[in-house]
Amino acid sequence: MSALGTLSTTSTSATSSTTPPVTPPDTLDLNNIQGDILSGLPKKTQLYIFFQIVDVTKFRADLARFVPLVKTVAGVLKDRQLIKEHKKKGHKTLIPLVGVNIAFSHLGFVKLGIDDSSLGPATDPFIIGQFKDSVQNLGDAGTQTASGLVPNWDPAFVQPLHGVILISGESHETLQKKKLEIECIFGVRTIQPSIFQVTSLRGDVRPGAESGHEHFGFLDGISNPAVIGFDKDPNPGPVSVNPGVIVTGYTGDPSQATRASWAVDGSFLVFRYLFQQVPEFNDFLRKNPIAFQDLTPEEGSDLLGARLVGRWKSGAPIDLSPFKNDPVLAVDPKRNNDFKFEGEINSQFRCPFAAHVRKTNPRNDLEALPPPVGPISVQKNRIMRRGVQFGPELTKEEKKTAKTECGRGLLFACYQTSITNGFQFLQKTWANNPKFPIGQTQPEEPGLDPLIGQGVRSMSGTDPNNEEKVISGMPDFIIPRGGEYFFSPSLKGLRETLASPPVTA
Ligand code: HEM
Question: What digits encode the pLDDT tens for the residues 131-150?
Answer without folding.
Answer: 999 999 999 999 999 989 99
